[in-house]
Amino acid sequence: MITLSQLQQIMPRAGQRAEAFLDRLNDAMEEFSIDTPLRQAAFLSQAAHESNQLASLTENLNYSAVRLRQVWPTRFQNDEVAAAYANNPQKLASKVYASRMGNGDEASGDGYRYCGRGIFQLTGKDNYERCGTALGIDLVAHPELVVGPEIAARSAAWFWYSKSLNQLADNEAIGPMTKLINGGSLGVNERTNLFNLAKQVLA
Known about the structure:
By secondary structure, the chain is mainly α. The chain has helices at about 5-10, 15-30, 35-50, 65-70, 80-85, 90-95, 110-115, 125-135, 150-160, 165-170, 175-180, 190-200. The longest helix is centred in the first third of the chain and has 16 residues, at about 15-30.
């Protein structure tokens, strides 16, 4: 079990959020066998990066038209199309996540209903259903639950376990771990620094 002091050292910007999450994170790590200092250091360091130290538990979908064309150039091929979705998270998510990951078409609104939430940004109706089944909670009917401390922590630990990240943590494989969580190597240097810090704190 990690202590509040340890969590605050690993995530110094978490502030009062650390208190709200401490017991939830400990319970979630126990539930999903994140049960050695090395595994906990890896999990908490990735969690710190992905959630901006527990501050960002809902995907930011508030983009300008210029940024939309940069992020999704094939979906927003001109300024007029981009302007129609700019600074409108609900409309944007309904479009970019439509008809994939188990979501319905754009008109269904599933893209926004099942947008990224939680510590590791659970995304897509299929993933909400899989996670909910594993946790014994109807997250398809209540996707908003994923932003609360308990389900944010449990959904992250479930994702970690389902992707066999404990084994990568045992080998300190930060790069492969990051790819499975993020889809690439975004922030790998910061993640590595956070991991090294967490190892020292939990040693």
